[in-house]
Design brief:
Elements (H helix, E strand, L loop, with lengths): L2 H18 L8 H9 L5 E5 L6 H17 L3 E5 L6 H8 L7 E6 H9 L11 E11 L1 E5 L7 H10 L5 E4 L5 H13 L4 E4 L3 H9 L5 E2 L3 H9 L3 E6 L25 E9 L4 H14 L3 H9 L2 E6 L1 H22 L5
Parallel strand pairs: 1-2, 1-3, 6-7, 6-8
Antiparallel strand pairs: 3-10, 4-10, 4-11, 5-8, 5-9
Helix pairs in contact: 3-10, 5-12, 7-12
Length: about 325
Amino acid sequence: MNTRTLQRRQFLGQALAASLLPAPALLPLGTARAAESWPARPIKWVVPFLAGTAPDTTARIIHEAVGRELGQPVVIENRGGVGGNLGARQVAKAAPDGYTWIYSSAPMAASMHMYKAPGYDALKDFQHVMGLTSADIVLMVNAASDIRTLDDLLAKARSAPGKLDYASGGVGTPSHLGVELLLSAVDAQVTHVPYKGASEIVNAVMGRQVTFGAPIFSVAYSNIQAGKLRALAIAGTRRNPKLPQVPTLAELGVRGVELTSWGGVSVPAGTPDPIVARMRAAFDKALKQPSIVAALEEQGGTVTPMDAEAYRRNFTKEMLLTEAMMKKAQIEPM
């Protein structure tokens, strides 16, 4: 065998061996280039609730700092309705290019059981970037009401079943499921009046359109401070430091009704990992700024950064909790 033939066989053997090696995981060329240049234009952050709600306030406190980190404006777009489902559907169908985000939260997970056809899958249609904050749920009435305690409220409800009414931020929101679970635990009947968000709950109670409500703490807090609303109980595991005199439901003898509203940021499934990593880094830096932490806490929230895996687990746990609450309160999917 001559030298040239031997060299040729060695070359072919090396080529064959190389072809059998696993190919490196690479993004498509266009996707890789897009990720490298991202962001090249303003970013839309969809908040699937009305302006003035806790998610909206949280996003508006954070968005400018995140935009500065990324070098492009982050523009808030409110898309309220159907317990947050309208906005979630919009983002689920958006291009996975990093230019459309959603303020994701507990209602998105609850909708998987509350609705027969929510229009999206909370786990499959989104890549959950990270958790941002959490907040208590507060049971409250108009400050001019003769209802001064939880016992007063329950006594009125039991004396005239179905006559009292309460406002929620929409079907499947913590303000709905929490009250229904409370009513189930204390054997009382009242009428549910769904609105489009926590700010509308507050307005409905202050305007005496309904008897009571249980919004996210941060939305009701300023009006409780101003003496327009009266807090009866906190639906959490501990008293809220902003209102240390207000007991928890458990302290008042109602156990098993412990709810916390939480929220974060998510993007359409398929968004490139390098973009998600840059988002996470920008939010991490923003949440470490003392002025942002102070502003969020002033609203009654708690800064609770959560990585992608832990945040995704939050969705799974919320789905299981919603399913259990619906069974206990005998609520059928819509």
